[in-house]
Amino acid sequence: MASLVSLYKAVLVERSQMFGKFRQQKHLSDFAVDDYHPFFFLFRIIHSLYQLPRPLPTKPRAIFILGSSGTGKSKLAIGLALRFRGEVINSDKMQVYAGLEVITNKVTPKECAGVPHLLLGELHPEADFTATEFRRRATFLSDDITSRGRLPIIAGGSNSFIRELVEGDGAAFRLRYDCCFICVDVEQPDLDDFVGERVDQMVEQGLVDEARDLFNPAADYTKGIRRSIGVPEMDKYLRREASAREEERAALLAEALDEIKENTKRLTRVQRQKIRRFEADDSWPLFRVDVTEAVRRRRDEAAERVWLRTVEAPAIELVNWFVGGVMLVNRCGGAVAACGEEVAIIAAMGTTN
After folding, report:
1. How confident is the model at residue 43 (pLDDT cuts 50, 70, 90)?
2. In this structure, are 251 and 165 located in the same domain?
3. What residue ranges in the chain does DSSP mark as E strands?
4. Element containing residue 318 per DSSP (H, E)
């Protein structure tokens, strides 16, 4: 009888903190001792088993990786996708086009590590692709990904695309999905330094040849992939290259590359401002992951370990808690912040209802 009483106490619970709201149930102490006839009591136990709290139907999850150019959004998205059976939906408005792999800084097949990347290099270079079209495509792709039991991870720096996806069409996506917004951020001076270095690396990888292959004096530079930073600047150089003397060409190229660096730095500032407005104006619960240390130590032998410790590990804990619903993350070491303040992840859910 004692074991039956213990079982009865176990199954008659008023509420489950993990699964939300459920119907209220009587506690064992509400019944009189006279009710404990063995047969009557066994009936009550069986009946109670059918009344156990059940989780309310939950919405599918979607992860957003936001951040300025050069903050490691793609690298983090791939790391999370490998851990959580995810697929990446690109939200960079220039990377949706085919071509200019170096200038648009697309991830390479090797860097993708087998993770499916959607809306990456799929469109004709001169096609128009609006934020509304992105919302429709990204919603369709997210639905397909979740239907196969996988996790959609939307990653990219085009905040107009991201805002349209989340808030457009009456916030249909936000109503359909629980969204976790992770913002990878780098302190501006360190980001400026990295952006300049990255442009130099892009030159080594073939930036000038890419721009020359695309060069067309009669083309419309307000449409398609030609709007990418690096294309208009190189266009000015290429128009003057043929008629310039050799020593002048070197100076003209250096001038074009400096302009690319400055325009990219200016873009990062605009991107950071827009992300702040997501939090301030749209009340998105952003989780900030500070990538500054990883950027500062990018030349160290331990650079990859620093990335894993300071960026990927905290993000993995956050997403593990977010998609699991029962694992409470409390070992962030201050690496993740919500609403601009260093907090334990569990202090803010990160979902939108």
Report:
1. very low
2. no
3. 61-67, 86-90, 117-118, 151-155, 178-185, 286-290, 336-338, 341-342
4. helix 313-324
Handedness of CA 27, 28, 33, 38 (dihedral sign): positive
Distance of CA 126 to the CA centre of its chain: 27
What whole-number distance in Å separates Cα of residue 171 and Cα of residue 135? 11
Look at residue 283 and tell me if it is in a domain. yes
How confident is the model at residue 336, as a pLDDT?
A: 42
| pLDDT mean across residues, the chain | 81
- Could you read off the pLDDT of 202-252 as tens digits, one per residue? 999 999 999 999 999 888 889 999 999 999 999 999 999 888 888 899 999
- Looking at 218, 248, 264, the residue that finishes a domain is 264
Q: How many helices (H) and strands (E) does the chain have?
A: 13, 8
pLDDT for position 6: 42
Q: How far apart (Å, rounded) are the C-alpha atoms in residues 256 and 12?
A: 72
Q: How confident is the model at residue 16 (pLDDT cuts 50, 70, 90)?
A: very low
pLDDT value for 15: 31
Task: Name beta bridge partners: 185.
Answer: 290
Per-residue model confidence (pLDDT) at position 343: 32
Q: Are 338 and 285 within 8 A, CB to CB?
A: yes
**Count of structural domains within the chain:** 3
Of the residues 264, 292, 322, the one at which a domain ends:
264
* Residues near 97 by beta carbon (within 8 Å), at least 6 away in sequence: 104, 121, 122, 123, 124, 125, 127, 129, 224, 225
Q: How far apart are CA 237 and CA 167, in angstroms?
A: 40
- Whether residues 207 and 184 fall in one domain: no
Query: What was the pLDDT predicted at 338?
Result: 35
* Joined tokens for residue 233: 């600047």
Write out the residue range of the structural domain in which residue 172 sits.
Answer: 61-189+267-347
Beta-bridge mates of residue 151: 86
- Evaluate whether 202 touches 105 at the Cβ level (below 8 Å): yes
